[in-house]
Write a structure and sequence with these properties.
Elements (H helix, E strand, L loop, with lengths): L4 H19 L3 H7 L4 H10 L17 H11 L4 H11 L4 H6 L2 H13 L4 E4 L15 E4 L3 E12 L6 E7 L9 E7 L5 E3 L13 E12 L3 E2 L5 H37 L1 E2 L2 E2 L4 H29 L5 H26 L10 H7 L10 H15 L2
Parallel strand pairs: 1-4
Antiparallel strand pairs: 2-3, 3-7, 4-5, 5-8, 6-7, 9-10
Length: 381
């Protein structure tokens, strides 16, 4: 159920002030330390940000997809690493459980996920398996009472601090997606180990790392859904995650545009503010138009999802357009700022690096193109 308008407006106002007053002043420090301050994480817990998408009966806020998208836009106005702190609990790390978990699984895990007591993570990608997610090699062999899980997952967001992994593993001899199942794997099971966080181009403060499973004994009751349903669960999770990421892209673009306008109205060249030069105006106009288009597509698709419509194609289109759009906006921002855009003090080069990842995770732009084309052909146009 949607929140009543007054309550939701209050939530948006709280998130907006939190971003402006608490998060943005810390952006440089987070970049330098490659870590989110613990007191900020606690404030996020207190605000309920870890449980945005989890039902109220389990302690979450129970936002609709449209409401979640609007919150994500606000959170996009600062370094993406802040949102990533709780992003897996809101999206890919929890939604498999929300969508396919049984009553016992939900009761055991969702309250702790919603409160931020535990951090979740989604383990799909492998060293040589990325876009072809139906080809996972990690195996889970049933021995009559439990599954023995072995394999390695790569580039797993929040793996360094995750307490619970949703793991995609092959359980049968069926080729491709039909042989993949989903499992809830607590970090403290014997045989689970986490690699060192990777050094990344951007999004400092948000960690990714390998997760290794060495003959891990996973109780049968930790399987999500039936055997062979893992790929279907993963795709449903990613559909929602793509809309969330699309909304974040809109927020980052709007932040960049506002920064560009503020700079261009103050910076003078040839005797007047550069905002009065037509070629600067052209870049601002292109950025604003594209951001408005992305915002409209994201919010319309989110509303359609809430209405129960099939939005596989629209979610892919939103992810494809919004992630490509914010890259173009960030590039123009560097150009508008000129030399200052290339200097760390202004934060533009940081966001330029940060947004590059949006075109890769939750499905690359090329995967989105394939989905869009496939669904368009299926629908007849």
């Amino acid at each position: 159920m949607a929140l009543d308008p007054e309550t939701f407006d209050a939530l948006i106002d709280t998130v907006r002030r939190f971003v402006a007053e608490r998060l943005r002043p810390l952006e440089g420090a987070v970049e330098e330390a490659d870590a989110i301050p613990p007191e900020i994480v606690q404030e996020m817990r207190d605000m309920g940000l870890f449980g945005l998408s989890i039902a109220e009966e389990y302690g979450g806020l129970g936002l609709t997809m449209l409401e979640e998208a609007k919150v994500a836009i606000e959170l996009g106005r600062t370094t993406p690493a802040f949102r990533s702190t709780f992003g897996t609990n809101v999206g890919i790390g929890s939604q498999g459980l929300v969508m396919a978990g049984n009553a016992e699984q939900k009761a055991a895990w969702l309250p702790k996920i919603a409160s931020g007591e535990i951090i979740t993570s989604f383990a799909l990608t492998e060293p040589d398996i990325g876009s072809d997610s139906g080809a996972v090699k990690t195996r889970a062999v049933f021995d009559g009472q439990s599954y023995r899980l072995s394999g390695t997952k790569r580039y797993i967001t929040n793996a360094d601090k995750a307490d619970l992994f949703t793991v995609m593993a092959r359980t049968g001899d069926d080729p491709g997606a039909r042989g993949v199942s989903a499992f809830l794997v607590p970090r403290d099971l014997a045989g689970v180990s986490i690699g060192e966080p990777e050094k990344k181009m951007g999004q400092k403060g948000a960690k990714v790392a390998d997760v290794n499973f060495d003959d891990v004994i996973v109780p049968a009751e930790n399987r999500l859904g039936a055997e062979g349903e893992g790929f279907k669960i993963a795709m449903r999770v990613l559909d929602r995650g793509r809309l969330h990421i699309s909304a974040v892209c809109v927020g980052v673009a709007e932040r960049l545009i506002a920064d560009c306008v503020a700079y261009a109205t103050e910076r003078k060249q040839f005797g007047k503010p550069i905002a009065e030069h037509q070629l600067i105006q052209a870049m601002i106009a292109d950025s604003k138009t594209e951001a408005l288009v992305a915002r409209a597509l994201v919010l319309e698709t989110a509303a359609a999802k809430d209405a129960g419509k099939d939005v596989v194609m629209e979610s892919a289109a939103a992810k494809y357009y919004a992630s490509e759009m914010v890259g173009r906006v960030a590039d123009r921002a560097v150009q508008i700022f000129g030399g200052a855009g290339y200097i760390a003090d202004y934060g533009i080069e940081r966001l330029y690096r940060d947004v590059r990842l949006f075109r890769i995770y939750e499905g690359t732009s090329q995967i989105q193109q394939i989905i869009i084309a496939r669904e368009t052909i299926k629908r007849g146009g």
